[in-house]
Amino acid sequence: MIVILGSTGSIGLNTLAIASRFNIKIEALVAGDNISLLNEQISIYKPKYVGIKESDKKHLVNHTNIFCGEEEILDMLSKCESETIVNALVGYAGLMPTLHSIKLGKKVALANKESLVVAGHLIDISKITPIDSEHFGLWYLAQNKKFNKLYITASGGAFRDWDIEKIKDATLKDALNHPNWSMGSKITIDSATMTNKLFELLEAAWLFNTTNIDAVIEKKSIIHALVEFVDGSTTAHLAGVDMKLPIAFALLGDVKSELLKPVDLLKIGAIEFLPIETARYPIWQIKDEILAKPHLGVVINAANEEAIEKYKSGKCSFIGISKIVLDAYKKFDYLKPSNIEETIIINKEVRDYVNK
Q1: Measured CA distances, 292 to 57, 179, 202, 289, 296 (Å)
Q2: Is 342 annotated as a binding residue?
Q3: 355 annotated among ligand-binding-site residues
Q4: Is 155 annotated as a binding residue?
Q5: Taking the alpha carbons of 14, 195, 219, 181 in that order, is the dihedral positive or negative?
Q6: Are 179 and 160 spatial neighbours (Cβ–Cβ below 8 Å)?
Q7: 91 among the known binding-site residues?
Q8: Is 200 known to sit in a ligand binding site?
Q9: 32 among the known binding-site residues?
Q10: 267 a known binding residue?
Q11: pLDDT per residue over 78-129, tens digit each?
Q12: Where is the 1-deoxy-D-xylulose 5-phosphate reductoisomerase N-terminal domain positioned along the sequence (predicted)?
C-alpha cells in the first residue's frame, strides 16, 4: 500500500502503472490542478484519502475525504498507514511532505529533487530511495563497491544545438521544446538552463556521500549514469527512457520480470559525450562551488523558481533566468542554515530579493 503525491504528473502516472501491474494498493492520491485526471484516478484506484493544492477546487473532486493545502496534506500523511510515500511533487512544495514522512517513519520514494537540494543536510538519507534514472543508474552500478568518481548524463535541453548568440531571443515555446521527450514546464526549462543537472549533482552528493561527481552531455539519453571504480574501470548504465524501472525498484526493492525492452546496441549507433560549457549554460560555472557548499541549495532553488516564473510571464529573458540565480547565489553565499526553520526563512528572503 502506497501514497502518491503528484499523481497526475508523469512520475505519478508511471507509478500508478507499476502499482496496477504488481497489485499495489493506493491509499491516497494528491494532485495539483488537473482535477479531471485526478477524478479518473479516483474512479479506478479508489483511494481512502485525496489531497489537492487549492481548497476552492474541493467541490470539483469526486471524493468524500479530501485534504486541501500543505497543512491538511501533512495531516493526511499522519493518518495514512502506508509504509511508502511516493513524492513526485514539483518544486519547493515537496520539501515539507518529505520531512514529515520521514518523521513519521515512512520510506520516501523521492522524485522531488528540491527536497534534497534545499535540505539534504537535514534529511535522513537512509529513508530515501530516489526515483530518477540517473541516481537509479548510479545505485544499480555501485552496489556498495568502492568507486573513485560518479558521472550522470544530461540531454543538453532545448538549446543544446542552437547558435549561442540566438539563445538570448529564445521564447517560452522554444524552451519547452525538449529534443528527447515531453515533461512538465519547470523541469523542461531547468533542463534547458542545466539547473536540473546541477540539482541532480547535489542530490547525488547527499545520496552517495561524495563530491567527486560530474555530468556530461549524451544526446541520445541512452546512457544515464557511469561509475569509475578504484580499479580504473568505468561501467555505464544503459536503458530506454522510461521511469518505470526506477519506480519499480523503489516500490518493490527488486524486479524479476522484464519492464523495458532491452537496448538494441546495433540500432544505437555512435554514442558521443560532450562537455557542459558555461558559455551555453552559465549556471554551470558554480558547479564546483555548490558541491563544496551544498547547504546553499536552498538559495539556488528559491531564486530559480522565482526566475522561471518571471520568464514564463515575460518579465525576463531566457538567459535572465541564470543571471537571476547567479546574482542571488552571490548575494547569499555566506548563509548556512542549521535547521528547517532557518531554511524556511532563507527561502523567503531569497524569493523576496529576487522579486524586488
Answers
A1: 43, 32, 10, 5, 10
A2: no
A3: no
A4: yes
A5: positive
A6: yes
A7: no
A8: yes
A9: yes
A10: no
A11: 999 999 999 999 888 999 999 999 999 999 999 999 999 999 999 999 999 9
A12: 2-120
On whether 295 is known to bind a ligand per the annotation, the reply is: no
> Smallest Cα–Cα separation from 287: which of 223, 352, 193?
193
- The reply to whether 23 sits in an annotated binding site is no
| Fold of the 2-130 domain | Rossmann fold (3.40.50)
Radius of gyration in angstroms for the set of CA atoms belonging to the chain, rounded to a whole number: 20
pTM of the model: 0.92
Instruction: Please check if 346 is assigned to a binding site.
Output: no
178 marked ligand binding residue: yes
Amino acid identity at 95:
L
Averages of pLDDT over each 10 residues, the chain, 356 residues: 95 96 97 94 97 92 94 97 95 93 96 93 94 92 93 92 90 83 80 95 95 95 95 93 90 88 88 95 96 95 96 93 97 92 96 95
Q: H or E stretch including 213? A: strand 213-217
8 is in an annotated binding site: yes
End-to-end CA distance of the chain: 45
Name the grid cell of 138: 548510479
Neighbour tally for 147: CB within 10 Å: 20
Q: Residue 30 burial by CB count (10 A; 0-12/13-18/19+): exposed, middle or buried?
A: buried
The answer to the question of whether 132 is labelled as a binding residue is: yes
Q: Cite the residue boundaries of each domain of the chain with CATH code 3.40.50.720.
A: 2-130
| Cell digits of residue 214 | 560530474
Query: Cα separation of 190 and 99, whole Å?
Result: 24
Q: Which residues contact 356 (CB under 8 A, 6 or more apart)?
A: none
Query: Which helix H or strand E contains 84, and what residues bound it?
Result: strand 84-87
